[in-house]
Amino acid sequence: MNARKAIDGKALIYMIGLCAIWGMQQTAVKLAAPAMPEILQVALRSGVALVVIAGIAAVRRETGWFFKGTWKAGLVIGLLFGLEYFLVTQGLRFTTASHISIFLYTSPIFAALGLHMRLPEERLDAAQWVGIAVAFLGIVFAFAGRAGGVRIDTGLIGDALGIAAGAAWGLTTIALRLSALSNAPTTITVSYQLAGAFFLLTILSFVLGQVSLTATPILIASMAFQIIMVGLLSFLLWFSLLRRYLASQLGVLSFMTPIFGITFGALILNDPLDGGFIAGAVLVLTGIFLVGGRDLFRKTSAATP
Q1: I need a labelling partner for 24 at 20 to 30 A (CA). Which of 2, 13, 113, 219 fits?
Q2: Those residues with Cβ within 8 angstroms of residue 295's Cβ, 6 or more apart along the chain or in another chain
Q3: CA distance 84 to 162
Q4: What does the pLDDT look like over 202-234, one tens digit per residue?
Q5: Gap between the Cα atoms of 48 and 51, Å rounded
Q6: Which segments cross the bilayer (predicted)?
Q7: In this structure, what DSSP letter does residue 4 have?
């Protein structure tokens, strides 16, 4: 395989499109919630995407990885991924899509802290510790940002669920890095994640009684977007980019996603935004960039004469 290259203009355009798609997903789910519970939407989306991604793995002859002792790690990351989206879908029932978009992307903070304790090569440097402090200060500001139209008591519950979802995502990253799946093709790890989300969320949707369905134009449009754009197109484009470009630089660019999430939530759902939340969101994004951008900064300085 050819060496992966640094980000260029073409990759940047693709990443902006990807972040826009990912940023829209919370808004799309909440928009269609009156017609289908959030948890059932994500379960259905995950099931369809699983069939396609597993099919791609079969075409590429990568399915042998399922039998290389990866099933235990796959079970763990699948359950964690399912837990993440369970927390996201329940959080959306209490707070705005904009808030969930920010709190979900605290995941790199939790991943960095966990890997710092487990792997010597992942020790945090001074800039990253500053980033963690800034991000958590931002969480405090964002938590306090409670504009009109959102009840304080239920809104705080939703925000807490959003942060818990970010922690679950961070744990998924740690489990993946420390397992036999760390060297597996992306199609295999994503297949495990989608399978975990599909089965766990489907079961929980019936247990919680969140299985109502009313066919409406909004629901049809939302599910089409989630299945085609989020579940299929975005994954395929992401796989393609990972095969050509440096993953660390792509990961830094993915931090644009919460910006799109806030924007779509405000424009489409009329999510209320106040100064405290905006200030907190800026601090969170700054902190995440400081934590996740270390590899990018190192590569940039190394390439500078």
Answers
A1: 113
A2: 248, 249
A3: 9
A4: 999 999 999 999 999 999 999 999 999 988 888
A5: 5
A6: 12-33, 39-59, 71-88, 94-114, 126-144, 156-178, 190-212, 218-238, 250-269, 275-292
A7: P
